[in-house]
Amino acid sequence: MLLSNLENFINIKKTYNFKKNKNFSSITSNSKLTDKKTLLIYDKNKKIKKIYVDEAIRNKIPAIVTNKYINNLKIPQFVVPNINLAINSLLKNIYTKAPYKTIAVTGTNGKSSVVWYISKILTLLNYDNISVGTLGHFINGKKINEINLTTPAYEELYKYGSLNKKEKYIYTFEASSHALEQNRLRNYTINVAAITNISNDHLDYHKTFSRYKRSKMKLFNNHLENQGFAVINSKLKNLTNLKINLIKKNVNLKYFGNKYLNLRKTKESVYLTINTNKYKLNNLKLSTNIELENLECAIACCLVLNISQNKIVKVLSKVSNPPGRLEIVEYKKKNSKIVIDYAHTPDALKKILHAYKVKNIKPSLLFGCGGERDKSKRKVMGLIANKYANRIYITDDNPRYENPSEIRKNILNFCPRATEISDRKKAIKLAIKELEMNEILILAGKGHEKFQIIKNKKLKFDDLKVVKQLINDRIR
User: What pLDDT sits at residue 204?
Assistant: First the structure.
C-alpha cells in the first residue's frame, strides 16, 4: 500500500513533509517493531517518549500517523482527528482476512499450556490455527517468532491473527491482566473466552486482589461477544455477578472440572468424562493434576467450536507439554527426575510441589523471585517452599534493577532452612549433586526462558540446557 492511498482509508486533518511516495505493509505503536515498511502510530494520549520516535526514525519508517503534530521531524506526518478510528480502518484494509473463530484465554496460571494444548489438538485434527502468547507466535504449531509481551499491543494482536488463506482458521491467544486493564484488546472480536484460575499475582501493578480479579473479568464483561461462549473452571468461587452478566448477554456457559467435563486419574489410566460419555485415555502423556486441569479447559474450548468428542479423544495421546512447562529431564545415574517449570506464583508453586510428592516423599526445589515485580509473593512462596519441599535452594531469577541479595533475603526470612546461592548455574549444579536416588528436583520460575535479566542486560541462560550440560559432564 502506498502513502498516497492513506486518504482513501482514514480522515486526514493535515499532512506534513510528504514529498516522496513510499510503500508500507503494516502499522505499529511499538518503536522496536518498526522497519521501512511499517508506519508508526503516535497517540498523544499515551505520552510516548521522544526517544521511541527517534528509534522508529532510525529504523527508516516511511511515515507517522498521529493525532498531534510532532515538532522538528523531517519524515511525513499524517495528522488525524481520531487515532483509534484511523488504526481500525488501516488494520481492516491491510489485513483483510479475519479468523473464523477467536479464543482468548485468561487466568493466573496455565494460560500458555491451555493455548498450546488447543493448538496441538487443532493441528492434529488439520484445523488451520494461529496461537499467540508467552511462548511466541505459532501457525499450525510451527513457531514463527518470539513476542515481547504475553498479550501484544492491539495492532500486533490484529496482525498476528491474520492468515492470508482462503480456508477458515482459528485464532487463540493469551489475555493477560495487564492487557485487559490497559484495553489492548480494544474492540477485537472474541468468540470464546476461557479462564483457568485466579490467585494472587501482579499486585505490584494492580495493587489489590479485587482489582486484579476485576481486570480478568473484563475479558468476559467487555470483550466477549453476545451469544459467544464462556469456558469457566468449575472450581472458581464468587462468580455470581459474572454469571448474571453473561446470561444477560445470552452467552453460553461451559464449565470444566465438574461432572459434565472432567479428567480423572486412577492407578491404571486416565478417564475423560464428557456429559454422559466416558473414555479411557491410553498412553496419555499428561498425568499431573495441573496438566489435566489445563487439558480440561482446552478440551472445553475445542468442544464449543463444534469439534466432535470422538475426534478430540483420538488425538489426546499425542498432546504434549509446551517448552518449560513440567519439562522432565531423566537423571538415570540416580534414577531421579529434574522438572523444569515456569511456576512463578504461589499457587503454581504449591500445585507443582503437591503434584510431585510421591509416596509422602517431598520433591526438592530450586527457585527465586523476579525483581521489580509483586514483592508480596516472596513471603508466600518462601512459606510454601518451607512447608512442601524437601531440600530448598534459593537463587536469582530475573533481578532486573533490584538488589538480588535483597530479593533472596525476602524469601529466606520465611524459608530459613534453604541454601542460598546467588549464581543460578552454581545453584543448579549443587542441587543436582545433592540429588538422592529416586528423588525429584523442581527448577521453578523460568521455564522456557532463554535469558536472565540483570539490570538492563539480557544474559543467555536456559535452565534446560544448563541441566543437560551438567548431567552430561557428570556422566563423563
Answer: 75
Task: Take residue 218 and report the three cell numbers written for it.
Answer: 473484563
Q: Residue 123: how many CA atoms within 13 Å on its side-chain side?
A: 18
**Percent of the chain that is helix, strand, coil (3-state, to 5):** 35, 25, 40
**How far, in Å, are 113, 178, 199, 350, 404 from residue 108 at the CA level?**
12, 12, 6, 13, 25
Q: What is the DSSP string of 98-163?
A: PPSEEEEEE-SS-HHHHHHHHHHHHHHTT--EEEEETTEEEETTEEEE--SSSS--HHHHHHHT--
Contacts 24+ apart (CB under 8 A), 147-153: 148/30, 148/32, 149/176, 149/178, 149/179, 150/111, 150/174, 150/176, 150/178, 150/179, 151/175, 151/176, 151/178, 151/179, 151/180, 151/184, 151/185, 152/184, 153/28, 153/29, 153/30, 153/184
Strand partners, 419: 393
Residue 420: closest CA among 392, 399, 452, 447: 392
- Name the maximum alpha-carbon separation found in the chain: 75
For position 474, what pLDDT does the model report? Answer: 63
C-alpha cell at 246: 453473561
Closest C-alpha among 406, 435, 404 to residue 422 = 404
Answer yes or no: are the C-beta atoms of 303 and 339 closer than 8 Å.
Answer: no
Between strands 190-195 and 336-341, the pairing is unpaired
Closest CA to 310 of 320, 319, 299, 301: 299
Residue pair 455/429 in contact by the 8 Å Cβ criterion: no
CB atoms within 10 A of CB 451: 13
pTM of the model as a whole: 0.93
pLDDT in tens, 185-221: 999 999 999 999 998 677 677 778 888 888 999 999 9
Pairing of strands 392-394, 224-233: unpaired
The Cα 130–Cα 461 span in angstroms is: 28
Q: What is the pLDDT of residues 407-459, one digit of tens each?
A: 999 999 999 999 999 999 999 999 999 999 999 999 999 999 999 999 999 99
